[in-house]
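Problem 12. The chain below contains 458 residues. Write out its predicted structure in token notation.
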Amino acid sequence: MPISQPTVPFSEPPWLSNPPSPSPYFTSSHRSFQAAIRAFITTNLHDHALEWDTQGRVPEEAFKMFAEANMLVPSLPAPLPVEVLKSLGLGGLLGGVSVEEFDGLHGLIYGDEMAASGVLGPSASLTTGFAYGIPPIIRFGNQQLKDRVLPDLLLGRKRTCLAITEPGAGSDVASIETTAGKSEDGMYYIVSGMKKWITNGLVADYATMAVRTGPLGPAGISLLLVPLKDDPSIAIRPILTTSSTANNATSGTAFITLTSAHIPTTNLIGHENQGLSYILSNFTHERLTIAIGATRQARVALSEAIAYCMRREAFGKPLMEQPVVRHRLAKAGALLESLSAWIESVAFQASQNQKQKASGSPDDRNSALSLGGTAALVKAQAGIVLDECARCALLLFGGNGLTRTGVGEIVSKIYRDAPSMRVPGGSEDVLLDLGVRQLIKVFRAQKSKLERETSAKI
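Solution.
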């Protein structure tokens, strides 16, 4: 029997290390799923990720391959839309996992494995629009809209993206300015405005787009499904950010300009002027997904640094023999493992909430608010930890960490990507404040309820 290699410190979450640590969260279903998708993702994504990232392009065949293997659906939030998936022949996932049993921990595993190459662009090119653009249609779209667009989207025959952010409105979603007034015959919304930093916008057929159908402020926002292709009133161009020209071309980041685009009123998602609540309900999944990916990137950076320091010699001995090097790695590693444990806890909490709803328990608004606040804090902390681990790795690689090729290529790219995890999904400072405000709101509501119940008994 071959002897398996020990795990490089910090390269895997403890439950996947060799030897593995026991976990109260992960079942045989989770372990089967992880083993199966790791093999698939390694072959069909990670083995090519650095090359695709450098070229700035992921082949369309990669998306088709993921779609055919039903490897896009796990990017959706749990619980999955079981009925529609089974009607489309998408009832089974790799590892023998059914769509019925898929939970938040399966989702955590999927997000972790998709990020394991260490580079952001290639995996984002496959899943971002799917993961964030489809859920509002599933949750809030009317049946006619679902029947018309979900089969093509879920089967990967067409693609969508989420288009919320604008040049003048990022984390402050209630300030969006893209307008959507109705035509005289009431058949169309006439949409004018700009959307910026739209991931997958270059490759998408549709955009799940926030528009202003009512007065200024949060009460006037709606969601529309906007067809993007072959419309002269819609202009789409690539955005190149400070992260990397290649990286952002890989994920298809776009600037979208709409000039009196006529969008059928039948493409309204949910009810008019209720869009902000739909957007906010989508944020917990988005922020947890970003946090999971950032945590895996941090693992790649830190484990690469450890491996490098064990073989690189300076001043007559390996770098790992220098106490200052070990001290730097220890601080970053402690932050990383604390974050990882927190994310597993939050994913488990989300899974338990899912099971309670499935059993018929009434929705607990305070529980949802608390989870939303925690997700905001987790996402903010993940960006901070990634930045620390990437900076630690780059400094230990020295000049090799500053080059785009060679031994330090992956560390250089992770350090480049770190800001792209700290801003999207809500910028760091906004989320830190939001998280505390949400938790205080829940505390006050619970305290008020207790006081009312106590008064009633007296």
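Discussion. Residues 115 and 277 are 29 Å apart (CA to CA). Students who got a different answer should revisit the alignment rule from Section 12.3.
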